[in-house]
TrEMBL record:
Keywords: Transferase. This is Glycosyltransferase family 2 protein. Belongs to the glycosyltransferase 2 family. The keyword Transferase applies. GO terms for molecular function: transferase activity. Pfam families: Glycos_transf_2. Residues 40-204 form the Glycosyltransferase 2-like domain. InterPro entries: Glyco_trans_2-like (IPR001173), Glycosyltransferase_2 (IPR050256), Nucleotide-diphossugar_trans (IPR029044). It comes from Actinomadura harenae. SUPFAM superfamilies: Nucleotide-diphospho-sugar transferases. The keyword DNA repair does not apply. Residues 1-23 are annotated as: Disordered.
Amino acid sequence: MSSSNRTAHAGGVPRTAAGAHSDNLVNLTEHGRRWRTVTAVVPTLNERENLEWLLPRLYANEELDEIVIVDGESSDGTRELAAAYAQDSLVPGPHPVVRLISQPPRGKGAAMREGLAAATCDMIIMLDADGSMDPEEFGAFLALLRRGYQFVKGTRYGCGGGSDDLTGLRRLGNRALTWLANRLYRQHWTDLCYGYVAVHRDAVDLLGLRSTGFEIETEMCVNAVRAGLRIAEIASHETERRFGVSNLNTWRDGWRVLRTMVRLRFAGPLDASTSGAGAGAPLPVAEHLSPGALTASVPQAAPGAAAEDAPDRLRLSWRAAALSRTGTE
Ligand SMILES: Nc1nc2c(ncn2[C@@H]2O[C@H](COP(=O)(O)OP(=O)(O)O)[C@@H](O)[C@H]2O)c(=O)[nH]1
Ligand SMILES: [Mg+2]
């Protein structure tokens, strides 16, 4: 593994890995002339109460152009709430376009792959629906993507990072798995199993993702190394899941993470020809939902975003109109 794959740690300020790829970083001044669009991908499995916290914040987030929600056939009203936002977003306005995809609950990895394949913007941010990851941190992730990194992973360790959610056992397991990943892939990561990640759309096609479960985060990280992507870590604070309980099983999913990182280390070069968010194990058939009979409605004034105060964002109006014209919703 060449040193050019070393991750740059960013507890607020990026540090290039031993100057290994600083030459490749984008000249920010020059880049500032290009407008790039952003998709948030959110997997949901019975997260209605959490979505009531998260969705208004995403909908009002000025960084976002598109929100892709991949729902695992939730039975608690998650789907209806997401569909209400998808419906509302068809009207051009100062908000992102919301797209809802439904698929059988085959695991977070399957949902993420579906969401990544559906995302249409230049940059993609992945976050959980449980309200543990704050959209206020988007700017920090995106700044590193704009700076030229292709894969930016959040870390709950180091200066500025933290977690109110990790149990002692999960903390210990994550430490051990991160240590092993660093040995196997010659990295300096501080956090392996954290799903707050941002990636350039073009790089998604190089990751060759095949996971269906929680090991997807590990697969993304190690395949980013195998694909030779420029990787950075950024400090992030994970709060407790707001409602409900985690779907993760510490022992079962820890084992899957371990197996994945070891298998991929000795799997030879990553075959880009079979790469792509939809590559690998077949995905269950997903339904791209049109917002039909709705039993939920979008709050009129999303917190922190009074519609009349919102800036005129022509690009969003254009995008919403374009997507509705092509019948994507
Ligand atoms: N669509 C879909 N989402 C899932 C599935 N399993 C978990 N998720 C979502 O993945 C995210 C992470 O799951 P979570 O239970 O919070 O795991 P933790 O953060 O590791 O404790 C949450 O937004 C879940 O709703 C699934 O089978 N299908
Ligand atoms: Mg969570």
